Amino acid sequence: MDRIREFIDEYLYQILIGLVAIIVIFMFVIGGMLVGKGDDVSSADDQVAIENSSSQSEAASVSQSASSEQPKQVAAGSNQQMYVDVKGAVKNPGVYQVSANMRVVDAIDLAGGYNRSADKKKINLAQKLTDQQVIYVPIRGEKGTPVTSTVAASPTPAETTPDASADSAAAPAADGATGTPQQINLNTADKTKLQELTGIGDKKADQIIAYRQAHGQFKNIEELKDVPGFGDKTFANLKSSICV
Fold first, then answer.
1. Which long-range contacts (CB under 8 A, 24 or more apart) does 198-207 make?
2. Tens digits of per-residue pLDDT, 193-211?
3. How far apart are CA 209 and CA 194, in angstroms?
């Protein structure tokens, strides 16, 4: 026991210094581990924050792009609206609003479909519609009707210049007659003007216009007899009132 006490007394100072050194080293190791873990957590939080911010920026960019493109699409669609004039053997003739992807069959459906006198064999139902187009459904038995359902829109009185009207009225007719103020020119008269002729109603005026659009201008007044529904008797009644 005495030797153990002597050993402790002799080396007590070195033992204490060694214990203190071990404790200090242990504390440094523990502190380093805690600091490293804290840095890892902080880095992970920063990465998550960066990713969230990037996602929000991309979402905002996509939303802004979509909102800027939408008005253009709506505007493009609004320009596709057109109007066509459906005439002839349909239940409800008139002007109808259509779109660029519609066909003649769609326009006829808008007009209520065919009536009983329609000649369906002479209609091109697959033809695409165009703005200001006239769709004429012929009547069974009509002669000279083109095998088509569409003709170009006739010029309105506003589109006819005064000079052209004057020249047409003053020009000699093909049959040797000269137009007078009381006579109506078959080549330039619109539907309203044609109805001023004796015995010419809405239907016959449409037939004259359809014939003119399909075959071109009348070469002489006798050609009126080639229009469906006009015979020698009708021509004789109108002869003094018309010119070309």
1. 198/237, 198/238, 198/241, 199/234, 199/237, 199/238, 200/238, 203/229, 204/229, 204/230, 206/87, 206/88, 206/136, 207/142
2. 888 888 888 888 898 998 8
3. 9
Q: How far apart are CA 52 and CA 60, in angstroms?
A: 12
* Structure tokens given for 98: 């259509």
Q: From CA 118, how far away is CA 12, in angstroms rounded?
A: 128
Q: How far apart are CA 118 and CA 109, in angstroms?
A: 13
**150 strand-pairing partners:** 135
Compute CA distances 89 → 113, 123, 135, 174, 213, whole Å.
Answer: 9, 11, 10, 33, 17
Rounded to two decimals, what is the model's pTM? 0.33
The pLDDT value given to residue 91: 92
Helices (H), the chain: 2-78, 104-110, 162-170, 191-194, 202-215, 232-238
